[in-house]
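Q: Convert this sequence to structure tokens.
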Amino acid sequence: MDNLATTSAAAGSSTTPVAAVGAGPLSAQARERRGSPPAGAPTRIDPGQFRKAVYDHLLYTCVKDRAEATAHDFYRAMAHTVRDRLVQRWLTTQRTYLEADAKRVSYLSSEFLTGRSLGLCLLNMGLYQEAEKMVGERNLDLAEVLESEVDPGLGNGGLGRLAACFMDSLATLELPAVGYGIRYDYGIFEQRIEHGQQVEHRDNWLHAGNPWEMPRHEHQQTVKLYGHVESHRGADGKVHTVWVEGKTVLGVPYDSFIAGHETDNVNTLRLWAARAPYDFDLQLFNAGDYRRAVEEKVDVENISKVLYPPDHTDDGKELRLKQQYFFVACSLADVLRHFKLRHTDWTLLPDKAAIQLNDTHPAIAVAELMRLLVDQEGVEWSVAWEITEKVCGYTNHTLLPEALEKWPVWLFERVLPRHLEIIYEINYHFLRKVITRWPDDLSRLARMSIIEEGGGGKQVRMAHLATVGSHSINGVAKLHSDLVKDQLLHDFYELMPERFNNKTNGVTPRRWLLYANPRLSHLIAELLGPRFAAHELPELARLKSYVDDDSVLDRVRDIKLENKRDVVPLIAKLCNVKVDPSSMFIIQVKRIHEYKRQLLATLGIIAQYIRLRDNPNIAMTPRTYLFAGKAAAGYATAKQHIRLINDVAEVINRDPLVRDRLKVAFIPNYGVSLAQAVIPAADVSLQISLAGKEASGTGNMKFALSGAVTLGTNDGANVEIREAVGHEHFLLFGMEVPEVQALYAAGYLPSSFIARSQELGRVVDLIENGFFSFGDSSRYASVVTYLRKYDPFMICADFDSYMEGQERAGALYGKPRAFAQTSLVNTAGGGVFSSDDTIAAYASEIWNVKPVKVVLGG
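A:
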């Protein structure tokens, strides 16, 4: 985890193996070659004390003698030892925040994709070599010990990884903060590729426990569900509303440490687990009805069982709604508990607490905070609403209408009856403001209402609730924020433009440059000094002064080639595909989704394959395409695209006419550790979403930092990457947003684009004829129909431009010096995408939160 990995200690010597960077799938030999990141501050931990503590945990925690201890035993012992080293810092941090009465950020997110922890911690504490020596004495390999750590799958992609980067930066910038989420018993799923298809297996990441977390039963919260609402007039003459619950759920918090880099500040990641008030019904059990005796426990604990349960059924929708409300209710109760430690005047809450809603998943927080203030604390409605608006901020992460959550009113009424009443009340007051502003525009009322009324029944628009109830609404890239204002929430922007702003996403340089790419980090440290990745990432811009230094460019080329060589055995092991590290590595690793257009990349590969088959002597830069990513379990279209990639790979990789010039591999079970392995090896980063569909992206930033050139559309943060690196160092293709909008308005006919592109027509025909499905023409009939008749993300319209971009990529790669210059410039330009800078902007412009420095012993 970044929370445990970014401690204030040194990174160790430059010969330390990179197993500790959490690269996971890389072989021990590859980690040895990569080396360790540049050293930082000197360690304050004595290696002898560390050794003794590890052996103590081996004996007293793992209950193992040294002679019989396994690699997993050593992992647990070392993890507990590292966690122990952070306890005093965490206690001191919490005491300092409380005594300073500091305003605290509560970051609510349904995902926290943290990655592995132990290796990063050992590096930062300067203890890697001591750990290696210890396990070597027991005839064990430290790489095997580090592989014992499970990569927590508590996220699906950019949203969860961004949350982890933000938590790292909050601690590093010494900003008081707590991350709130769900402690899922099972991660999203373990992805395996069987017969070319994605098959989901349970991700039982907690099967052997989690040494990084601590249960906090004393801060357990009680959550209500179902039931009904009763009103009565009290002795004060006011009407009081009581939510009489039908079911009670307990929320048990599990805390992990979020340690700042080169600071003593340690913040908290608090994840909630759902537990039943009673394990089983003793009377039913004694009566022999064993199944019903535990039904309540099973039903309740399903709430935190798995990330994103399928919601294509009513039961699935209900579980998701309960899941979202559960973690929000627990978190807000905890926020108010903390506030009441020092205060009784609720009007002070905005001065002491900032609540950031990471997308729409926690949007119910607006109604829940109102319920707590009005029903529980007796605050008058208008005062409570003013408090809620000042406290809450909403980050929008998507322009896709289907991703802006809506819940049927009947479901809300069943599960959260009091919240539905509150939402109707919020909507009433809000629409009065709208009609006052635009008295003759009734259609605007329907567009802006929190309650959507249509043929499918009334629904609660969660994005509207979050927008109405927050003082700040931000997008996550300049283009995205403009589209939020101009299209997605335009009516709201016209009503309250002062609330809308942009906060372009960033990535933590500690993990994604300093640790994931130690070779490049060492070069940059030699050129710029050692602090570039800790707090001064924008200093990377100074690398541009070396763009004509041949000795530096040679190093850049050598580093990239070595990083590619590290990944070759990984591809062979996981995909059974042998690739040439001298070929151009073109990589697209991200969540599998139609709008991210993995299908476009696949069609491009087929087109290049056809060219080679037609003319084996054609001059074409050898290419290796690497894909990775998970499709949601119920997302049939995306899963079909995975299958097509694998079928295309199967045919191409076995064809002797092209196998040395074109290779394709889909690496299974993509996660943080795999990303750290493959991103540094990329020559070309595919960021090819249709213009106007990607909110920001953070993978594009990680690739640029590691020196990959982007082949991409003018979409999301690609726009800002292109500005940062220079247009000549970005391979732009595809339509711009206005062109996309005009084509939609004119009536997009993908078949017309297929007809006018002979190459695209041949590609579609080849798929349709069953060439890549062993003669089974029905296998990809849905894909062909999708392309010919629908193509909602305009793959066909952008195809020829994409192929031209591929030609430019190949031509650039064929000029090694020019390519090294572009690689160096991309790393230099990528320095503006630090999550430290993003969080600093959130803190000053949205939260009004100030740093609080922690001093041990102070």
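DSSP finds 36 helices and 23 strands in the chain.
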